[in-house]
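Homework help board

Subject: predicted structure for assignment chain

Our instructor gave us this sequence and asked us to write out the predicted structure in token form, then describe one feature. I got the tokens but I'm not sure how to describe them. Can anyone check?
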Amino acid sequence: MRYEVDFLIIGSGIAGLSFALKVASYGKVCILTKGDASEGSTRYAQGGIAAVMYDSDSFDKHIHDTLVAGDGICDREVVEMTIREAPDRIRELVQYGVNFDLDNHGNRFDLHREGGHSEFRILHHKDNTGEEIERGLLEAVRQHPNIELKERQFAIDLITQHHLGQRVTKHTPGIECYGVYALDCDTNRIDTYIAKVTLLATGGMGNVYSTTTTPVISTGDGVAMVHRARGVLSDLEFMQFHPTSLYNPAEKPAFLITEAMRGAGAVLKGRDGKEFMQKYDKRLSLAPRDIVARAIDNEMKLSGKPYLYLDARGIGKQHLIEGFPNIYAKCLELGINITKDMIPIRPAAHYQCGGIKVDKHGESSIKHLYAAGECSCTGLHGGNRLASNSLLEAVVYAHNAAVHAIESVKNIDFNASVPDWNSDGMVLNEEMVLITQTKSELQEIMWNYVGIVRSDLRLQRAFDRLNLIFRETEDLYNRSVLTEPLSELRNLIACSYLIIKMARARRQNVGLHYSLDLLEQKER
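My token output:
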């Protein structure tokens, strides 16, 4: 099947839905999402969205906190723009029907504080803020007559001049995007979507690692597609590991214990029940995530145990039950009463700070292609994302991309010469074990060698093993009927390669990239 739409959006999280609502009055809009519309990283965001809403805080403070967390390599202009736009974007979310918790008087937002923040500025809805944002935006999208939302549609590749028979390399000037090829997961048919403007809002790549808080659909699809289309990518060595996921090895994804709990007074403790963060940072349990994650990793290695503890008992029973109801209920299912017991925690892959390089309008190096949300790299996060700046970045860049795309779409025509997908000669491969086993092997390689702490030797070993996995998978791809699991595996391999490549090129310990070899060089 062939489709033509003015605005094509890949992904149905906060970035994709916000963009859709803003452009819907200016043309036909189609959203493709590879799972159910509500299934994505936005839904799993517990803590909230950071914004300066009252005079007790200031833009300058939020800017300073973001720059400090980013370890000196943020784009200051982008930081200032994003943070100053925040209040307007919050008000728009409320207008779309999103509910944030109010204080006891009901006339001001109830604000949390999280690691790296100097003030209480996190708007939230209990401990399921992302779910509430997703609900509100999704309801607004479903009610809009100009927006078509299609579930279980897996975007395979961006359509560029390459599909018109031209040779395209990373040095080719003027690469253009004409839409995407997408697999209908219910019919196994590959459809052609031709678009004037395409937005990638495909989320992260947390599933390159064996332990992650991200949903199973976070397989780096947008980044991998841009990589194959020879677009510009940046900063993928900066993978953020959340310090506190619930230790429960049988569960995937790992259940997140929000940083807001530490902001409310919870304290990290070792297996002996003693605090340890004083050895690593004067901000203690509220230090930025890169510092806390490395501290926990080191303490786990010293103890030889697979988890440590988060002690939330000092917060108070009523506050815990009312402020963190989902965490309370989840832990209770596992026999942990957080009002009486400490919570077993360990770090987990959580957020990619790099991605598809975009300008302040959200436009990538490929013409007519925008990116917003976790799959993008704006310069806001630098070497390490400040807590709760992710939802903020997504909604700000969805807005900026929409404003730019509304003007651009007037001067773009559909490319009718785009061919349909060619699957001649492909055969159905029934050996799913080849895909599942390779995926598990890849995730273990990345966790063990390209995790919180790295070294030149570990990166080299990961690269060598990845090369073999890549060749085996490409051989399978070149002779098999395309399926979603095979496509996801290819994307995970591409993302893993990019993380390793950029980590090897980064010859300085900064933010989330921490190498033992670079530490030794600095000490010498």
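Reply (TA_rk): Your tokens look well-formed. For the description, you could write something like this. The CA atoms of residues 115 and 286 lie 4 Å apart. That's the kind of observation they're looking for.
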